[in-house]
Each structure stands twice: as structure tokens, then as C-alpha cells.
Amino acid sequence: MNSNEFNKLLIVLAVILFLLFISGILTANVLIISSYLLIIIGIGFFYSSYAKKHLPGVIIGSVLFLSGSVLFIFTRYEIIGFEKIFIPASLFILGVSLLTGNLLVRLNKASLIFSVLIIIAAIWLIWDKGTANIELFSSAVFSILKSYWLIIILAAAVISMISYRFNRRIDKMN
Questions:
Q1: Cα(85)–Cα(26) distance, rounded to whole angstroms?
Q2: What value, to the nearest 5°, has the Cα angle with vertex 50 and ends 45 and 154?
């Protein structure tokens, strides 16, 4: 499946979801719809950019996907003190996106160090401004993993298959 077919498939999926929400078959508010759309658009943008080895596209796709994921978490769970978590979450999304772009497309040492520093700054801001501790963090992560373990496994399997097919196609070209 090439990137154009994949993007068309994602657009069809987004339209179907939108129609299901409008018709009332699926009930959700605007934030939930936005989170799903950001996740879907982010995956499509990331996949097509990764296939073309386009660094800005990989970073933008990663930012869109992670923003949709954070928005999904904010709509599903009650987060007390949203203003305390917004800036660290934004920094973490930026850092992980830059790190992903550097590791998957092109390795640039300065950008790699910058992305790691942004991630460390985000974690430091969370620990410094909040009342978070290791026990609270691990219980929250365990709760999310317990609820969404099947989705995580399926996503990992899909990513592995796509990566395997992509690498096999590159090997045939060489």
C-alpha cells in the first residue's frame, strides 16, 4: 500500500466517523471528534512523510498525532490543574516529535540533543510544578495500560507490519 492509498483510506475513515457522529449513531462532543481527527490525520501525515523521508512532515505528523492523543486523554480523564500540565505537555510533544524525526529520517546530533533537552525540561516542569510522584505516575500509567492494552498491541503490530513492508520494499529497490 503506497502513501496515496493510505491517505485516501484515512480520509474515508475520517468521513465515515464524521458521518456517524453527525447522524447520532456515535455520540461525542467536539473535543472527542477533534482528538480522533488529529490522531487519524497525524498517522496519515506521518506515514506518507516517513515513506518519502521528509523530515518536516514526520515531525508535523508526530505533533498532530501526539496532540490528538493528549486531547483524547484530557477528554477521557479528569485532569485537575490543566494549566499546570499544558506547557509541559506541549514541550513533551515537541521533544518527542523532534526525537522521532531525528531517529527515523535523519540523524542530526544538535537536533537530537535539543530534543532530549526539551523532553527533560518537560519532565522537570511536571515534577517541579505538580504534586506528582513515582507512585502516582505509575498508577496512572498502569490504569491506562489496563484499559487500552489491546489498542496498544494492535497499534504496535500495525506499525511493525508497515515498517517491515517498507523496509522490504527498500531492500528490493537496492
A1: 29
A2: 75
Cell numbers found for residue 49: 512523510
| 144: in domain | no
Band (pLDDT 50/70/90 cuts) for residue 137 is low
Report the distance separating Cα 85 and Cα 88, nearest Å. Answer: 5
d(CA 99, CA 90): 14
Query: Integer distance in angstroms from the first to the last C-alpha of the chain?
Result: 19
Q: Output the nine-digit C-alpha cell for 74.
A: 484530557
167 φ, ψ (degrees, to nearest 5): -65, -35
Task: Answer whether 41's CB lies under 8 Å from 74's CB.
Answer: no
Task: Confirm if 60 and 49 have CB atoms less than 8 A apart.
Answer: yes
Here the cell at position 71 is 486531547
Would residue 48 count as lying in a domain?
Answer: yes
pLDDT of amino acid 75: 81
pTM, two decimal places: 0.67
> Is residue 49 included in any domain, yes or no?
yes
What is the extent of the structural domain holding 84?
A: 3-132
Count structural domains, the chain.
1
Q: Count the residues in the chain.
A: 174
Angle between helices 30-52 and 134-173 (to 10 degrees): 40
